[in-house]
């Protein structure tokens, strides 16, 4: 599988040039703590796992990775008079005129190790600043077939319709467009315990006959009703049954318990606290990561996991909320990454097999207002993993050259990001990747 | 083409189709009673909440025993020339927050109260419309962090859900929960301050026009200026330093006064300690350009608050786009997702012709031949809350004044909603949608996890699950097979199925499925004994969980 990189087709000029500028960079200089020696990437493993993190709400990545030099810095200082992060003691220099906010806990360490690929300025043409339009477009990745997402179409192509029920999982209780395929959707498993039928609420004494209901579901699937709701119910019910019947789940439909090897944000023992009042950070993303680690340790055959941290729609109170969100996001990723090092599966150490992909539907307006920031355009995506070639890919947006609404112009099409991941991490042939995304997008060089 | 002329007669299937969509279904006996009435008059009465069918005695009595605090009516205060009172929730069941009694601010309790009302309100259309507006003007407890404000907003939907749409939009724009949810409380656009666009954007994108439908970024900024300072404040004694800060967001007494820019006298009460700004001084002045027209936002107009003329321009100037937006939402919730472009256009034209009078719109739509087209029967997947409410209405005994089923009305629902956030796991955390776009409907309600939780609550309902609470054991949903489900003993297994299907009203079942269930449950001679009654519970569970059982 190491030859996957040789499947490289069209490397975009921009991505290649900037990757060259920062190959394995980003670490080293200005690193603020615990970094150690920058390590080279490892070969892409034979059973790679992709963990998606949806930074939900459109995050102000300009305050996560603010400019620290040149014209961009002066524009930033002017437009972010009260919210801007310009105190260099609060920042880790990344080179290329950008710095990392130290509230993005642990990401400086991962960056220093060369484990983070940053794609600032990622976006799409003609954004309308709507959360929902943008989320749908990030989900779709291509216009056809309607109602499907890029990972759903990947599942259609790569997963067996008859089996593979646990290859694509979301630990959220919903199922967003990104995960919907034409014939195969992801399974939603938001908790490790009791994934079992019929799952009484409290005190059942006589169990309904699972076989009878399962028979009913099977007949329903075969009935080929034209009704979309009926089909959705039949498919969802069948997925649920197939998942809970899967041998990967232990007795009683519960995944074997596992204690994390490190404290995660939200845990009492986690050393980083809220910036405003010293309380515990939200553990919402941590809980999802712990569950994913548990499922990986249990040997579930999942190839893709989806998770989410919301709360980033900071129209107000950003000075209080944003540092805490960054601490929760960065801290969760770092804790998860460390936790994965202690999990060994039949196909290797989990830390070698996992790549984390983070994205948000957009960034926020450069100009602040009233203690917050309004909806913007280009975002910051990043990948974390041992196979990642750390550094910055794509151009940092020019803050002195904004669009008519005062928003950044995107520098990397988000589908280039997807194409890179589909080709070089998920092992899709180039032609398949291009079909899944509807076109041939330039690949980035971080894998 | 959507034929919007009214039907002149209806079948029993039509009656149940109507009752499922405009309420939470009817028992076979009640449906037969309704069928004897002329459809137009019966539907008018249903929508108006009038007529002999609506005996609210038991419901009112049960609400009166609910453990909630009463609130005196809020009256206008001459010294608060700049404030507009939020209509007080009518006594005696206002639901207020008290710091000393934290459960009153519990999302779980508030959810339970809403669900209980849906189950027992004799005027179900009121609850159905409130649910519809809750999904459209989706405001979330997780940011508002105040159950009293959420319930106040929900009551607004009950009270004004059939008003004119522009009046409803204006009322929602002044609603305290909405002010917090979309940051109106911090929209300061006086002088050179830059407006906070959040509410203005969603007012158009999510609440009235739809994305990319008749407005642009400039319109958003301009409307945000018109609505700047539209915030709320409290009586002097209830001062809070910063309503946007959850740690300080404690309301001692719900005397909310929404400031909507209509005063010419400064409101002297500081509400935002960080800046020392008052809501009065946050309001922008001058005129704005919106939708190509100019609106004065300094003066009152037509008796409206400053800037309200601009807000109402969404409906008056962009009426065609607004009608189209509403038509989509109404069709998706009440009729079908399979509407054609022409259907949409026809309904939108009707909305405009009805001058956005929602009562008239709903009466026309729900009486129409288009609505009753058999192709639209069972054409939608039901949301989890109303799916469960409908089943509870069919299988649980009706509320009676003399026999409170659970103490003070709704703790059983509280037990259900509190269990590992069951509503949330079914895909619908009532009063707390994850974002301002609410929940997607129809097939989007259904995934492997939501179906898993539907089987859980279906089991609780059908199998008569119990739980201890404060030393007493309660059935979560009290059900009685022989007295309520089968007042006449069934003679055959098929009769058991027929009766349960009449109660639960699943969509069309695949051939052979019910027969297969019956053959497995009753392989030998049928006798209506205790064992068969237990099997009837299991059959009810199977129907509720089946794909056909998700449709309505």
Strand order of the largest sheet of chain B: 1-3-2
Strand coverage percent of chain A: 5-15%
Largest binding interface between chains:
A-B, 68 and 80 residues
Domains counted in the coordinates of chain A: how many? 1
Number of strands of chain B: 7
* Overall average pLDDT of chain B: 84
Q: Any chance you could write out the topology, listing elements then pairs?
A:
The complex is a heterodimer of chains A (447) and B (552).
Chain A: H1 13-21, E1 49-55, H2 70-79, E2 91-95, E3 98-101, H3 107-112, E4 116-123, H4 131-140, H5 150-158, E5 168-170, E6 187-188, H6 210-223, H7 228-245, H8 284-297, E7 304-309, H9 318-340, E8 344-345, E9 348-349, H10 350-353, E10 354-360, E11 364-369, E12 372-375, E13 379-384, E14 391-392, E15 412-413, H11 414-424, H12 430-437
Parallel strand pairs in A: 1-7, 1-10, 4-14, 4-15, 5-6, 5-7
Antiparallel strand pairs in A: 2-3, 4-13, 8-9, 10-13, 11-12
Chain B: H1 12-22, H2 28-35, H3 39-48, H4 57-64, E1 83-85, H5 107-120, H6 124-136, H7 141-144, H8 147-160, H9 165-173, H10 176-181, H11 198-205, H12 217-226, E2 231-234, E3 256-259, H13 279-282, E4 287-290, E5 293-296, H14 308-316, H15 319-335, H16 341-353, H17 358-367, H18 369-372, H19 384-395, H20 411-418, H21 422-425, H22 448-462, E6 466-469, E7 472-475, H23 481-485, H24 493-504, H25 513-521, H26 530-545
Antiparallel strand pairs in B: 1-3, 2-3, 4-5, 6-7
Helix pairs in contact in B: 1-2, 3-17, 5-19, 5-20, 6-8, 8-9, 9-14, 11-12, 14-15, 15-16, 19-22, 22-26, 24-26
